[in-house]
Automatic annotation (TrEMBL):
Domain of life: Bacteria
Family designation: Belongs to the 3-hydroxyacyl-CoA dehydrogenase family.
Keywords for the protein's UniProt record, in alphabetical order: Oxidoreductase
Pfam families per record: 3HCDH, 3HCDH_N
InterPro entries per the UniProt record, alphabetical: 3-OHacyl-CoA_DH, 3-OHacyl-CoA_DH_CS, 3-OHacyl-CoA_DH_NAD-bd, 3HC_DH_C, 6-PGluconate_DH-like_C_sf, 6PGD_dom2, NAD(P)-bd_dom_sf
The protein's name: 3-hydroxybutyryl-CoA dehydrogenase
Taxonomic lineage of the native organism: Bacteria, Pseudomonadati, Bacteroidota, Cytophagia, Cytophagales
Record organism: Marinoscillum luteum
Residues in 3-hydroxyacyl-CoA dehydrogenase NAD binding domain copies: 4-182
3-hydroxyacyl-CoA dehydrogenase C-terminal domain segment(s): 185-281
EC assignment: 1.1.1.157
EC primary class: oxidoreductase
GO MF, one annotated term: 3-hydroxybutyryl-CoA dehydrogenase activity
Length: 282
């Protein structure tokens, strides 16, 4: 594997492009907007600067990493020579369906098609392509350059060969891949999101305030961020949509999203990205 195409240059997409390029892969970074691509390259450069400042990499590594990234505004062009395509576009099935159909039509027959989805069924996405055995989930965690996990999700039809290739590629990024099966929330979000939702219920029911809840989990459980701060960081809209996937997928009332989370998202309080969530961001 040498040529990687990444579709979507937002927070996750630029992080994924960053780590592949840093490990010597040729990366085609694809987004519909030139503006978004420019912003993504600036973010990657800034995040590489952090690594240079911490003496984790050299200036020469930074230059080499940036030189490994080429940008495209057309999926059909950007996936033409790919060995592995990773889709990291908006978390919406209709958008992903269209992208996967285009990826399938224009990437080489041997290419593996992966998605960074945090909650949409891999099996359902794979069914939109003519190569379901080569479709897989590759779920990176934010911030991608820092977090060690890649949750590798096998759809119902994903082959052993595809899984092995993606496990090996993840290990080459010096990440720890973990293989899981395709059920709602996979493993990461099946466990993380009910914890965040419970923290929101704890606030909603007046058991404690925002900072108190986060402090309990940070100092008591050694979590790097409290659950409410983490929810702001992930995006409250993303948290709500994942809770809905768990609730609908399992039909169990224990996954019902907290009414406070629903209200906050409805009001446009989505966390860091909108400047307002459980905390205020300037
Ligand atoms: N790129 C490169 N390096 C970065 C970075 C980035 N985007 N962001 C942070 N860093 C580096 C910093 O340079 C620093 O490096 P050193 O350890 O060498 O000093 C290190 O990461 C820690 O950063 P900071 O000192 O700035 O801040 P911090 O100590 O508060 O850590 C954090 C920040 C890593 C984000 C930490 O708070 C953390 O781990 N938070 C939890 C993150 C988490 O749970 N992520 C998963 C979210 S769920 C998800 O992504 C999936 C989903 O489906 C919802």
């Amino acid at each position: 594997m040498n040529n990687i195409s990444v579709i979507g240059s937002g927070t996750m997409g630029n992080g994924i492009a960053h780590v592949f390029a840093q490990h010597g892969y040729q990366v085609a970074l694809i987004d519909i907007s030139e503006e978004a691509l420019k912003k993504a390259l600036a973010t990657i450069s800034k995040n590489l600067d952090r690594q240079v400042a911490k003496e984790k990499i050299t200036e020469a590594d930074k230059t080499a990493t940036l030189a490994n990234i080429t940008t495209f505004t057309e999926v059909a062009q950007g996936v033409k020579y790919a060995d592995l395509v990773i889709e990291a576009a908006t978390e919406n099935f209709e958008i992903k369906k269209q992208i996967f159909q285009t990826m399938d039509a224009h990437s080489p027959a041997k290419a593996i098609l992966a998605t960074n989805t945090s909650s949409i069924s891999i099996t359902k996405i794979a069914a939109e392509t003519k190569r379901p055995a080569q479709v897989i989930g590759m779920h990176f965690m934010n911030p991608v350059p820092v977090m060690k996990l890649v949750e590798v999700i096998r759809g119902y039809a994903t082959s052993d060969e595809t899984t092995q290739a993606v496990m090996e590629a993840s290990a080459k990024l010096q990440k720890s891949p973990v293989e899981v099966n395709d059920y709602p929330g996979f493993v990461a979000n099946r466990i993380l999101m009910p914890m965040i939702n419970e923290a929101i219920y704890t606030l909603f029911e007046g058991v404690a305030g925002v900072e108190e809840i986060d402090t309990v989990m940070k100092l008591g459980m050694a979590h790097p961020m409290g659950p409410l701060q983490l929810a702001d960081f992930i995006g409250l809209d993303v948290c709500l949509s994942i809770m809905k996937v768990l609730h609908e997928g399992f039909g169990n009332p224990k996954y019902a999203p907290c009414p406070l989370l629903v209200n906050m998202v409805t009001a446009g309080y989505k966390g860091v990205k909108t400047g307002e969530g459980f905390y205020h961001y300037t």
